[in-house]
Amino acid sequence: MIDWLSPATAHLKALHISMLVLWCAGLFALPLMLSRHDRAISQSDYGRVRRATHYGYIFVITPAAVLAIASGALLVFLREAFVPWMFAKLIFVALLVVSHAWVGHTISAVAEQPQAHEPPRPLVPTLLLSLPILAILALVLAKPDPGEIPFPDWLVAPRDVQLPFDVPRR
Ligand code: HEM
């Protein structure tokens, strides 16, 4: 489909894997760093950990997420990966994006209303994050056949129902 890019597939996959390693590592690290936003520590230590969290999110983890997703999107076309495991993987990637947005929201809430917003404990976010990451790795490494993925019936067979709006005739 984009033949002129085919020779770069291996490099693109290397970029994809390095960026997603950085992204996932950041999603684990940031809740841990947020939990160090403890008002009992000295003002200078508090400022240092807050800046590291904020800049890490903006200048490292978010660009890594964008590059992981962009290189993954290009790989879909280069590897012609229009297959069920890929679409199942995208559902779990969406959960990672939700987790990324939650971390960003928490960082800004802690910075803007330090008195009102207590940083969450890292255990639950870390455990929750492990689930989509393990599911993605299982899907992408095993590349299961369509029959092995338990899609609900309504996703795999035509429903023969009328759409709730008029469809123009061809
Ligand atoms: C929108 C996001 C993403 C898209 C569109 C995407 C797409 C792809 C595609 C098309 C491949 C190549 C598969 C092949 O060569 O057969 C790939 C490889 C891979 N992806 Fe993703 N990916 C995304 C995000 C992620 C995330 C978040 C992870 C892990 C947490 C991940 C883990 C991997 C791994 C480990 C490989 C190498 C698999 C192999 O070569 O056998 N991807 N991805």
Give your account of this protein's structure.
With 170 residues, the protein is mainly α. It has one domain. Helices cover 68% and strands 0% of the residues. It has helices at 9-34, 43-78, 84-112, 123-142, 153-156. It is globular. Protoporphyrin IX containing FE (HEM) is lined by residues 13, 16-17, 20, 24, 68-69, 72-73, 75-76, 79, 81, 90, 93, 96, 133, 136-137, 140-141.
Give a short overview.
This protein is mostly helical.
Task: Kindly list the characteristics that best describe this protein.
0% strand, binds protoporphyrin IX containing FE, mainly alpha, 5 helices, 170 residues
Class based on secondary structure composition and strand pairing = mainly alpha
Count the DSSP helices.
5
Oligomer: single chain
How many separate structural domains?
A: 1
Bound molecules: protoporphyrin IX containing FE
Point out poorly predicted stretches. none
Q: How many beta-strand runs?
A: 0
How much is the radius of gyration in Å? 21 Å
Report the portion of residues in β strands: under 5%
Distance between the termini: 28 Å
* Rounded average pLDDT: 90
In which range does the helix fraction lie? 55-70%
Largest sheet: none
> N-to-C SSE series?
HHHHH
Bulk shape: globular
What are the SSEs and their pairings?
Layout: H1 9-34, H2 43-78, H3 84-112, H4 123-142, H5 153-156
Helix pairs in contact: 1-2, 1-3, 1-4, 2-3, 3-4
